[in-house]
């Protein structure tokens, strides 16, 4: 859990993903389209990936644990949370407050 928390706090937007997860790619693409430069940790390519995946599953309360999106060091959730924030107009202000975008 400490590894996840430390990594999530290092950048404005951090996404924990796997290289083959289509929902992770969707969230990453959406954020990039807004001008965000997210830090992406692909768990299947990290030697600590399994440990981090277990920690994320515990934080999220579900599996699969990816994508797990942190904005401003806080866990926002997964794809459905990001899309809901976007559709309600809350995502852009959240990204601005975290310093992820400046528009």
TrEMBL record:
<keyword id="KW-0963">Cytoplasm</keyword>
<dbReference type="InterPro" id="IPR011905">
    <property type="entry name" value="GlrX-like_pln_2"/>
</dbReference>
<dbReference type="Pfam" id="PF00462">
    <property type="entry name" value="Glutaredoxin"/>
</dbReference>
<dbReference type="InterPro" id="IPR036249">
    <property type="entry name" value="Thioredoxin-like_sf"/>
</dbReference>
<keyword id="KW-0676">Redox-active center</keyword>
<dbReference type="GO" id="GO:0005737">
    <property type="term" value="C:cytoplasm"/>
</dbReference>
<feature type="domain" description="Glutaredoxin">
    <location>
        <begin position="13"/>
        <end position="76"/>
    </location>
</feature>
<comment type="similarity">
    <text>Belongs to the glutaredoxin family. CC-type subfamily.</text>
</comment>
<dbReference type="InterPro" id="IPR002109">
    <property type="entry name" value="Glutaredoxin"/>
</dbReference>
<protein>
    <submittedName>
        <fullName>Glutaredoxin family protein</fullName>
    </submittedName>
</protein>
């Amino acid at each position: 859990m400490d590894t996840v928390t430390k990594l999530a706090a290092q950048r404005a937007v951090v996404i924990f993903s796997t290289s083959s997860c289509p929902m992770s790619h969707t969230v990453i693409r959406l954020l990039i389209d807004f001008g965000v430069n997210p830090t992406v940790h692909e768990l299947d390519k990290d030697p600590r990936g399994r440990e981090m995946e277990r920690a994320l599953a515990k934080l999220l309360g579900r599996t699969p644990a990816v994508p797990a999106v942190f904005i401003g060091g806080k866990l926002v959730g997964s794809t459905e949370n990001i899309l809901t924030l976007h559709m309600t107009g809350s995502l852009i202000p959240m990204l601005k407050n975290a310093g992820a975008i400046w528009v």
